[in-house]
Design goal:
The protein is an alpha+beta fold and about 270 residues long. About 45% of the residues lie in helices and about 5% in strands. The protein starts with about 40 loop residues before the first strand and ends in a 21-residue tail after the last helix. About 35% of the residues are buried. The mean pLDDT is about 95.
């Protein structure tokens, strides 16, 4: 049992602890002056290849594969070093989270932040990957936006990143993670994709989070959550993962062998 009693007024006296503690603070705004780079393409993406970042790079690569004029520069924003708090990035996203997009396709540049907003902006701009059942697609897209924080910031944080294991939050969020996987599993038992027969941005948004989970790649928690039980989610995730555009999108804005820290042309993948 913890002997902690919340004070009457909370104050920020120390970092909260855990792997990502240095990224968290109770105020917004920039911490330093730093302009963002700009490439030659109409779309300028500032991101990192986390699950939220992969949503957008997967869509970009799918649009390009389908023949749409969606060339983009993807610049690496290292959130472990505080790049998201630079003045230039905060101008694009006042919330200081990746991904963030500048759209230069029109006379006036347009900023777009929040991953689902970027997906909707690009899909509507090119009239692609919206599906024939728009309400169903939107429902699943917003399901993901509401659910993923419980998987990442909830389960992932307390299971993998907190300073020490704590039974109550791990049990609480493990239960929620498994409930979410069951929601997906029951739905995908009767549907090829989330919105039915059409592959949409709802799938692109959900795959980096829950596909990674059922592949046993998230938080080293595959056995703990018995992810093998969710056979319909696994089938869906494998089908999406086999798409060449998805494989390319997963590699962007990541460090390591076979990965692209920055992406400025389709030919960048040839060297991988």
């Amino acid at each position: 049992m913890s002997d902690y009693t919340p004070p009457k007024v909370w104050t920020w006296d120390a970092e909260s602890g855990g792997k990502w503690a240095s990224l968290n603070r109770p105020i917004a705004g920039p911490t330093h002056d730093k302009d963002l780079p700009k490439g030659d393409h109409p779309y300028q993406l500032y991101s990192m290849g986390t699950p939220n970042g992969q949503k957008v790079t997967i869509l970009f690569e799918e649009l390009l594969k389908a023949g749409f004029p969606a060339e983009y520069d993807a610049w690496f924003i290292d959130i472990t070093k505080g790049d998201q708090f630079g003045s230039g990035f905060v101008e694009v996203n006042p919330n200081s989270k990746i991904p963030a997009l500048m759209d230069h396709t029109g006379a006036t540049p347009v900023r777009v932040f929040e991953s689902a907003a970027i997906l909707m902006h690009l899909a509507e701009r090119h009239d692609a990957f919206l599906g024939s059942n728009r309400p169903e697609m939107l429902s699943w897209l917003f399901w993901l936006q509401g659910s993923a924080p419980y998987l990442g910031g909830g389960f992932g944080h307390f299971y993998a990143y907190a300073p020490e294991p704590m039974e109550y939050p791990i049990n609480r969020f493990a239960m929620e993670a498994k409930r979410q996987l069951d929601v997906l599993n029951r739905h995908l038992a009767d549907h090829q994709f989330l919105a039915g027969d059409d592959y949409t941005i709802a799938d692109m948004a959900t795959f980096p989070w829950y596909g990674r989970m059922v592949f046993g790649e998230a938080y080293d928690a595959g056995e703990f959550l018995s992810v093998h039980e969710y056979d319909h989610v696994i089938r869906w995730a494998k089908e999406i993962d086999a798409r060449p555009a998805v494989q390319r999108g997963k590699r962007v804005n990541r460090d390591g062998e076979g990965l692209l820290r920055e992406r400025h042309a389709a030919s960048d993948f040839d060297a991988l």
